[in-house]
Every structure is written in structure tokens, then in C-alpha cells.
């Protein structure tokens, strides 16, 4: 079982150099982002594995319990870079600060003669982050991060938004209206719109997604009708038993989300494998914590396994074994 040291991947010198870029030459980061060679087509085989890196912006810092691990930004970025360097994941979805920090670190690496980790990767910007986790205004999910013009200016490939539907709370309608405008903005800028959608219920521990086929079909049926066109809309949805019904609710492509980190990596992979068989429009996954924070292992191992399940339709056990058997940088 392989391990990695985040402090060796982003050294003290690299971290200090990133801060210097922010202070003295932020436009260099902007320029590097705009020069990035973008993948065309976005998905050569019609499938995608995207790393989700937007959790801290919604005040979600914990991996297990109240460990606050995602609040250590240097560690967080090192894990993302490790996945990009040692697996064939298709790209990253993140809030502006995370994507800019990754771009800055990528600039520093290329200046030192190393390869770019962002070339030909799909980069997706997170748009509505205002509904902070656990807050009284959680369903008032305002667009406090990227807008469509900002996505285009940063040279990104799409924007991700989230809609949580609580039929008893009018804030859901406000978020729906804002997302409809964001979809139109993405279409106008020739960007993909990725919509994460749930029906939710309030519990003592906060809002929980209702993971039943009926609830997910309800959410899908609402969000695919947002905006003037659905032709550039992809969905981000959780897996559930009876996923065939969920996939059958739309012809829009679907990426499965990973959710909270779990100890059983095979169970996560098994869900992805089952979901990929649920319909022709299930096209991969958009996963964060279950790749970035696997139990005491190198995050690249789980990333490679997810890639094999999605792109090569491998059995989860075989995918993990192959990933574990590869040398660093393989996959």
C-alpha cells in the first residue's frame, strides 16, 4: 500500500513562492490560465472522471468527525496535485481560489522545467457557494463564486451549480431562478453547465438529500428544464438503488457524486460500477473526498481505480488491484 507526503509535494519553498506570486505578480497566474491548452473534445470517449475540490467554500472542512482536514490548504492542494500527477483523471472542479492556487503552482512547476498538470485537463468552476453548510440560510444558495463571464475569462470549460429542493421552503425557488440564469450564461459563453440536484429534507443534523429514485427523478425533471436550453447541461447526482429510473428521467449526461468519505473503498467503486450500467447517459463521476482522503493510502491509488471503473468498465476489485500494482506516475 503506497503513501505520500504532502509536504514533499508542495515544499516550503513552493508554498512561499505561491504566496509571492499572489502578492507581487497575480497577473502571471491569470496569464498562465489563459494560455492553458484546453481539451477538445471535452470527453474523447464520452466519459469523465472529475475531481471535486469545492467543499471548503461551503464551510465543509471535515472528512471524518470534526477533523477539519480540508481546512489545511497546503495539504488539500497537495492531494489534488498528487491525483493529477499520478492518475488519468479528466479534470478538476473547484472554487476560484482553489483553481487559481492550482494554476499558480502549475506555473511555478513549469517555470522549473516540469510538465503542466493542467494541460488538456477539464477545469470546471464552482458558481453558487452562498448556502453555507449548517447555516440558517443554507437553502438561499446565492452565486457568490464564479459567474459565467468569470468562467470564460479564466479559460475554464464549464460551471457547476447546486439546487437543493425543499418544497416547504421558498428559498429553493430563488436558487432555481438563479441557476436558470447561470445556465443561460454558460450557454452564451459556450460552456458546459453541471447541475447538482437533490430533493432535501431538514433533520436535526441539517439538510439531508432524499436518495430514492422518485425524489431524484423529481429533482432531475425540474433542473433539466432550467434556462433557455438544456443542450449543454450535465447533471451531478448521487447513486441509489433503482438508478435505472433516475437515468431514465432524462437524456442529459449524468456524473455520479461521491459524497462523504467512506472507509470501504470497494463499496464506493461498486456504486460507480453499478451506476455506469444504469443507462447510456450515465457517463462517469464527479468525486472529491472519497478520492482525496482515502483511509491512510495515497489518493492517487483510489483515483486510478475510479478511472478504470469509469473509462475501462473494470470490476472494482480488479481496478483496485491494478491501481495498487502500478508504479508511481502510472495509470
- Elements, N to C (H/E): HHHEHEHEHEHEEHEHEHEHHH
The first-to-last residue Cα distance is: 16 Å
- Uncertain ranges: none
The percentage helix is 40-55%
Averaged pLDDT: 94
Strand content: 15-25%
According to CATH, the homologous superfamily is Aldolase class I
Per DSSP, the total helix count is: 13
User: Whole-number radius of gyration?
Assistant: 19 Å
Query: Tell me, what's the shape?
Result: globular
Number of strands: 9
- The CATH architecture would be Alpha-Beta Barrel
Helix and strand content put the structural class at alpha/beta
Strand count, sense and closure of the main sheet?
Answer: 8 strands, parallel, barrel
Multimerization state: single chain
**CATH fold call:** TIM Barrel
How would you characterize this protein structure?
The protein is an alpha/beta fold. It has one domain (6-325): TIM Barrel, CATH 3.20.20. It is 41% helix and 16% strand. It has 13 helices and nine strands. The protein has helices spanning 6-9, 12-24, 26-35, 73-86, 96-111, 148-153, 171-188, 213-223, 243-247, 265-276, 289-292, 299-311, 316-325; strands at 48-53, 91-94, 122-126, 158-165, 192-203, 206-209, 233-237, 254-257, 282-287. The protein has an eight-stranded parallel beta barrel, surrounded by five helices. Helix 4 packs across helix 12 and helix 12 crosses helix 13. It starts with 5 loop residues before the first helix and ends in a 6-residue tail after the last helix. The model has no long low-confidence stretch (mean pLDDT 94).
Amino acid at each position: 500500500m503506497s503513501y505520500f507526503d504532502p509536504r514533499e509535494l508542495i515544499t516550503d519553498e513552493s508554498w512561499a513562492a505561491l504566496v509571492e506570486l499572489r502578492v507581487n505578480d497575480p497577473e502571471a497566474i491569470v496569464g498562465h490560465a489563459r494560455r492553458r491548452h484546453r481539451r477538445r473534445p471535452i470527453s474523447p470517449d464520452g466519459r469523465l472522471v472529475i475531481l471535486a475540490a469545492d467543499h471548503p467554500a461551503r464551510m465543509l472542512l471535515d472528512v471524518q468527525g470534526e477533523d477539519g482536514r480540508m481546512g489545511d490548504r497546503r495539504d488539500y492542494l497537495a492531494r489534488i496535485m498528487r491525483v493529477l500527477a499520478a492518475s488519468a483523471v479528466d479534470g478538476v472542479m473547484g472554487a476560484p481560489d482553489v483553481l487559481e492556487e492550482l494554476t499558480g503552482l502549475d506555473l511555478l512547476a513549469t517555470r522549473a522545467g516540469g510538465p503542466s498538470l493542467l494541460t488538456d485537463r477539464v477545469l470546471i468552476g464552482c458558481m453558487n457557494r452562498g448556502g453555507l453548510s449548517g447555516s440558517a440560510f443554507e437553502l438561499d444558495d446565492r452565486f457568490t463564486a464564479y459567474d459565467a463571464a468569470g468562467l470564460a475569462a479564466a479559460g475554464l470549460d464549464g460551471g457547476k451549480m447546486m439546487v437543493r429542493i425543499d418544497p416547504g421552503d421558498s428559498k429553493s425557488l430563488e436558487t432555481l431562478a438563479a441557476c436558470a440564469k447561470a445556465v443561460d450564461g454558460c450557454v452564451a459563453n459556450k460552456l458546459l453547465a453541471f447541475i447538482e440536484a437533490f430533493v432535501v429534507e431538514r433533520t436535526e443534523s441539517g439538510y439531508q438529500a432524499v436518495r430514492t429514485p422518485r425524489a431524484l427523478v423529481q429533482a432531475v425533471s425540474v433542473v433539466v428544464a432550467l434556462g433557455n436550453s438544456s443542450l449543454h447541461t450535465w447533471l451531478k447526482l448521487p447513486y441509489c438503488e433503482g438508478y435505472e429510473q433516475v437515468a431514465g428521467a432524462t437524456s442529459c449526461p449524468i456524473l455520479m457524486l461521491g459524497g462523504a468519505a467512506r472507509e470501504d473503498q470497494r463499496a464506493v467503486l461498486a456504486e460507480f460500477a453499478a451506476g455506469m450500467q444504469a443507462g447510456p447517459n450515465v457517463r462517469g463521476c464527479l468525486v472529491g473526498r472519497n478520492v482525496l482522503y482515502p483511509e491512510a493510502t495515497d489518493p492517487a491509488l483510489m483515483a486510478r481505480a475510479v478511472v478504470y471503473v469509469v473509462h475501462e468498465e473494470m470490476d472494482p476489485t480488479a481496478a483496485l488491484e491494478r491501481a495498487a500494482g502500478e508504479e508511481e506516475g502510472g495509470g
